[in-house]
Amino acid sequence: MTGERDGSDSPDAPDPRDPPADVTVELATPADRLDVLRILDAAMLETDADVVDDRIDAGDVLVARSTRTGGVVGALVAVRPDPARLHVDAVAVRRARRGRGIGSALVAAAVDRGASDPAVDAVTAAFDAELTAFYEALGLSVAVDDEGSGRRVGRRSV
Description:
Blueprint: E1 23-27, H1 33-42, H2 49-58, E2 61-66, E3 72-82, E4 85-93, H3 102-116, E5 122-127, H4 132-137, E6 141-144, E7 152-157
Parallel strand pairs: 4-5
Antiparallel strand pairs: 1-2, 2-3, 3-4, 5-7, 6-7
């Protein structure tokens, strides 16, 4: 995963940006479309199915997949508001799997995806204030949204 450890963890401790041992993070395929839409819908995130289709085709949708069942347990949809920016539009994890590092692994994989694309110079996200620590732990600089919404915006140069 992208990023440096802060030195406070023991060298043998797992990187919190890595998925749990029973989960892999990979690019979504068209066969994952319905699972992605269901996970986002269950998290009450508004997502346009046509946007999801477009982003899957572009390689900008990631899924967290159970190694035991093969089922999708988390999803991240990124958009490109301009060619130099990969923006995390939606990220969600099935309720029963939350709190295990799957969301962190998805965002970290999106950062890696941005870093591997020479056209991208930053990965961004917009989110509610209570998620500030989550995004800061993944190396995003966080500021208050200047549109007065009270939301936060995160940015990480890649």
